[in-house]
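Researcher: First entry.
Model:
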Amino acid sequence: LEAVNTEPHDANIRGAICAERVALGRFQGEEAASGARVVRIVCVTDNPKPIFPGPLCREFLTSACAPDAEVLASGTGDATAWVGAPLRELLPMPSVYRRRDQPAMTALAAALAAQVQPPDSDAFRAAYAAAAARARAQHAKQSSVFPILFAAAVRFVDGTVSCMHELKGIEYGCTADAVTLLLPAMIRAREEGGASPECIVQADQAGIAHAPFAAARSLLVEHGFGEVLIGAHGDHGEWVSPITARDSLPRADYNELF
């Protein structure tokens, strides 16, 4: 299935839809019901160098495709030169809820709630405790929109913690994720000469920690917070070794364009 990106014509660039997501939408509407599955994603751009799918597309593909799906990329410099990687390598720390519907997500949340392990450092424990508490407190207020609610906390090197929950939109694409909503406090601290952010944890009402979603990963990297550490739980409730926001988007060669 072929597709191209769709750009808005009103200067609201947030509404743009990348080609990979358009193609996957076509697949779900035209092929998925027959039992077909995606085995290869090919990304070709008019940039001289190959560019892998962007963060949002990586996340969307991960939510619907097997982790061993092949991703190939090529540019105009040498149309015969392809680079490739399995999908799993393009989005470390994927959501534990990937490839599940809402009932399956809530069932997994209930199962993992009793298994999750706490972070192994004081900084991450402080951020995790704040995020999980806020998610639990805010869950009921927005549960009619979607059954899982996320909150996030950033811990600064001076020990202070800033926390915020996501703001859900009934039209899901209007939702403002919790980590993105931390950025104003982080930018303000930087502009005012305050403490630097040390680590970020996003958690849901079941106490399961998640890495920032794709949009937030991209904003962290592109706006000067690529070295901030992020932590999350793995598929079995184990605490995964933290990585930097920058390392959460490997092969993000598109950043070289700016």
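Researcher: Second entry.
Model:
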Amino acid sequence: PEVVVLRQDASGRRKERAVVQREVLKGNYKGQTELRENGVTFMVDLLHGQKTGWFYDHRDHRSKLAELAGQTPRVLDLYSYIGGFGVTMAHFGSEEVVCVDSSELALELCDRAAALNNVSDRVTTVRADVMEFLGAGPNRRAEARRGKFPEEEADEGDEDGDQEGTATTQGAVADYGQFDLVIVDPPNLGSDRTHAPKAVRFYERLVHAASKACAPGGLLLVASCTQHVGENDLLSACNRALRWKDGGGGRAAR
């Protein structure tokens, strides 16, 4: 390779008091790098972006969802990062995509990806804490549509799992209407096993709030990269959240 970037900046290194650094070991890294996945073009920041800058583990998931773009004209991409899901859906035919993330840098790259794929008219970016966004009131529509809530500084990407509070979906439902597809892909909610119960409770609140943004017959995709929350724990959390949403009846998560 012409360029080699070394990232030693995971939160676990700080806990172990190991050296935290980012450096270019070989070549001249000139900044944002173009990549293509499933025929869609993105710009990534390998040196300053989240973790490696891109998450190829979702490549097949994005490909599968792209097949549903014709059936999901309105898409809400929560914790969108640089728009891997949202821009892909717009590229393959979804008509209106709202990407929500707390990182201004990530949303700038999301906007660039939308422009590179000629779907800027279909993609709206919103800078906000996701739980705050899901509980936003009608009077915040103008701020959200222009891509930021000026007062929001919360970082929902905290790997220490510091996620608290409750949320309703009044904002998403009242301000944007409901969506045919809601994607929920939060960051790691804690690398320590002791964080698992807290993370499960957060998934319950998050899925409950996000499900209310789904239109009747809509789809909800929930992903987790929290190591100590297993598949069964996540499915159970989702099922509880969906039962709350439907008043005790509910639909099974799968």
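Model: Note on the second entry: The longest strand covers residues 214-222.
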